[in-house]
Amino acid sequence: MKFGTLLAREKVITPEQLEEALKNQVVYGGRLGTILLTLGHIDIETHKRLLSRHFGVPCASQPDIENAPRDVIERIPSDLVQKHGVHPIKIEGRRLHLAMSDPRNISVLDEISFLTGLMIVPYALPEIVLAYYLERNYGIPRREYHARLSELERLAIFGGRSPDRSRPDGTPARPVPESRLKAAEPPLVIPTGPLPLENAIEQMDAAPDRTRIGLTILQFARQYLSTAALFLVKTDEAIGWVGVSADGPLAAIGETILPLDGPSVLKTVKESGAIYFGPVASEPLNEALLRALGRERPATALVLPVQVRRRVVNLFYGDAGRSEIDPTLPARLSRLLAAAGTAYERLIVESKKKMEL
């Protein structure tokens, strides 16, 4: 049974709340349970109880993870826990008790059992809790999405107390190695090669997920622009998602968060839902945008929205440096981004149908 279906059948959430969460999942990604937490539709204890029922295994408690012995933590390599989303709890005899984001993943259970020589006793663990302890105990940086859930984390993990960044045995949390700061989310590879508009729209109509939607937009745009980037719009923030320049993918864009509470080209398009095609004014938030993209002030910038049911969910930014942008490009990109909005709506409908199976 799907997790969302279980929530609905238990009457923990309403059909409307489930639909809202599915929309967020399609557009922004992430696990359904975490999204429902961020929306305030479920609490952490409900999440744990239903995760346990969904996976058919116990849910690890905070003391389970807090009291994990250092030698057990060090026995499981950080690249392995990062790859599979797991955290060791304890070793009893030949059994390794392991908290997992997906305790039913047989291939992960088999791989870790083979590498450790131990039988695995799986436990479920909410994604947000797992991400916190992987950062604290292994120095694995959380994705920006998780790192920004500080208030939710405080309530979910620590019952409202301020989190203690040291371990119960007095040893400090591991520092995040510099080499790992940008390794948690490798940049997406933007396809190269010619992509006519009609072909791009056909790809959009068949896009299986949000990643393909974003890559199709950027593959088309990079033919005409020296820099192109997509941002996720959440309330009053534009969060960097994926981008490309003449030198390749913009690896640092995932670390970018730009407020939309002051004058900027992004705010203008988010509020109006219309195309912006013109100069980038000397405003603090515009300067922050250009710095985040590693750009000098361009001759002209092009900013367009992606809308789902009249709600702006993505913002596209592009420029051609000191060169002028082809004046026909805004209309062509507008067609493609309208197709992106339609693709999102299709994916939302498909997600709802899967929940009904």
Features:
357 residues, alpha+beta, GMP Synthetase, Chain A, domain 3, Beta-Lactamase, 2 domains, 7-stranded antiparallel β-sheet, 3-stranded mixed β-sheet, 17% strand
Give a verbal description of the structure.
By secondary structure, this protein is an alpha+beta fold. It contains 16 helices and 10 strands. The strands form 2 sheets. Strands 4, 5, 6, 7, 8, 9 and 10 form a 7-stranded antiparallel sheet that branches. The longest helix is centred in the C-terminal third of the chain and has 28 residues, at 329-356. Residues 160-185 have low confidence and may be disordered.
Set out the fold topology.
Blueprint: H1 3-9, H2 15-28, H3 32-39, H4 44-55, H5 62-66, H6 70-75, H7 78-84, E1 86-92, E2 95-100, H8 106-116, E3 119-124, H9 127-138, H10 144-147, H11 150-158, H12 197-205, H13 210-221, E4 227-234, E5 237-245, E6 248-249, E7 257-259, H14 265-272, E8 276-278, H15 284-293, E9 301-308, E10 311-319, H16 329-356
Parallel strand pairs: 2-3
Antiparallel strand pairs: 1-2, 4-5, 4-10, 5-6, 5-7, 8-9, 9-10
Helix pairs in contact: 2-3, 2-16, 12-13, 12-16, 13-16
Q: Could you write a compact summary of the structure shown?
A:
The protein has helices at 3-9, 15-28, 32-39, 44-55, 62-66, 70-75, 78-84, 106-116, 127-138, 144-147, 150-158, 197-205, 210-221, 265-272, 284-293, 329-356; strands at 86-92, 95-100, 119-124, 227-234, 237-245, 248-249, 257-259, 276-278, 301-308, 311-319. It is an alpha+beta fold and 357 residues long.
